[in-house]
């Protein structure tokens, strides 16, 4: 299981309804993207970190390990904004407002990522998928996503073990050997995926499979109090952003 | 290359979502029809999607000495066809953003457009064109995967250039800037992905001829294509 999903399964908020956590996490992300980066994104990031480390009970180390991935992409993605090409100052020159744009982008993306991480760290994907049918997603698509989710982990585990075996047999020592091993790895993953699917099919056929994968969904009710608190937090962030923006100008 | 969470301005994020929607809806309808006609396809399609997810997690050596991961869109489109890939790619991108913090939900539309729509359609078009013109299977597979990878990055460059025009030279300058940066790493990577896809296909021909026939990559009892390969 992947670290974020493993953390979500053991989360303090695991039993909360996914709609509550979606409203909070995605609400923060929408605020981060829509509000002015300064001070809006900073407030969103502070609120998201406070909720993640406080009530949601996510370990700081786990959060950092997950957050540094999008952060790395954001930093590398912001670098081109520092430069201008083909202007009067030469073919490549420093953009006049480049650092400002880059910092704004970094603030926006890092805050938006924290909103999604809040949802991901508290809600296992297996809790979300079966509920998507009620949201209007066609059943067959949800079933395919469920199978993908379950076989995906098994395949990732198999790929990891095959990679270790290849390394132990000196399969990664030269560039040519690495290519051979990699092709073998991808082909084995394909064969394993289809083998798993065939075995699942035989097993399900024995249990009267009629084309619908029925899974148990943990019962949960939407808490009006949680939603009210979420709305209050988001409204507070929006209001504070505009107040601070005016006072800072 | 996935555009990170919050990277695009809200209007751009929404516009790419709208642009992707018809293709994804078309794919969803194709997938739903297929599953209703053959319920056992659910498991096969799920396995295909899981394979796509795992393929994008593989690290391939780059000419520059660093590592990157294949997009998997070329191989996916050749094996499963572009409409199905639009759905499987969307689910894969959703999983990547939630499970790996890779990509994002606000940028899902943009990422779906480049990785799950343009990449598979462009790659499959080149593959189909070469096959029809009588090119050997492996040559077609190489160029299909190469074009799928490269077109994905070209579209990503366009998406970024539209969102962040250059202060001096506008969108054209930004396109040159982002395209130039990607070209350094992505042309060698596209070649690498093409070669990797050929190697994978060769192994699949040896080990999974039945599945390839079922997926329509090989003709029923069609050793002609395979003979052309060897």
Automatic annotation (TrEMBL), chain A:
Domain of life where this protein originates: Bacteria
TM annotation in the entry: 22-54, 66-85, 105-125, 137-156, 222-244
InterPro entries according to UniProt: ABC/ECF_trnsptr_transmembrane, Cobalt_transport_CbiQ, ECF_CbiQ
Signal peptide per UniProt: none
Compartment(s) where it occurs, according to its Swiss-Prot or TrEMBL record: Cell membrane
UniProt key word Transmembrane: yes
Swiss-Prot/TrEMBL keywords: Cell membrane, Membrane, Transmembrane, Transmembrane helix
GO biological process, one term: cobalt ion transport
PANTHER family membership: COBALT TRANSPORT PROTEIN CBIQ
Entry protein name: Cobalt/nickel transport system permease protein
TrEMBL record, chain B:
Protein family membership: Belongs to the CbiM family.
Keyword annotations from UniProtKB, A to Z: Cell membrane, Cobalamin biosynthesis, Cobalt, Cobalt transport, Ion transport, Membrane, Transmembrane, Transmembrane helix, Transport
Database matches in InterPro entries: CbiM, CbiM/NikMN
Main location (coarse class): membrane
General function of this protein: Part of the energy-coupling factor (ECF) transporter complex CbiMNOQ involved in cobalt import.
UniProt cross-references to Pfam families, sorted A to Z: CbiM (PF01891)
GO molecular function, one term: cobalt ion transmembrane transporter activity
Gene Ontology terms: biological process: cobalamin biosynthetic process
Subcellular location: Cell inner membrane; Cell membrane
Pathway(s) per entry: Cofactor biosynthesis; adenosylcobalamin biosynthesis
Gene3D superfamilies for this protein: 1.10.1760.20
Protein name according to UniProt: Cobalt transport protein CbiM
Quaternary structure and partners: Forms an energy-coupling factor (ECF) transporter complex composed of an ATP-binding protein (A component, CbiO), a transmembrane protein (T component, CbiQ) and 2 possible substrate-capture proteins (S components, CbiM and CbiN) of unknown stoichimetry.
Any one GO CC term of the record: ATP-binding cassette (ABC) transporter complex
Membrane topology: Multi-pass membrane protein
Entry's transmembrane regions: 41-58, 79-102, 108-130, 137-161, 181-205
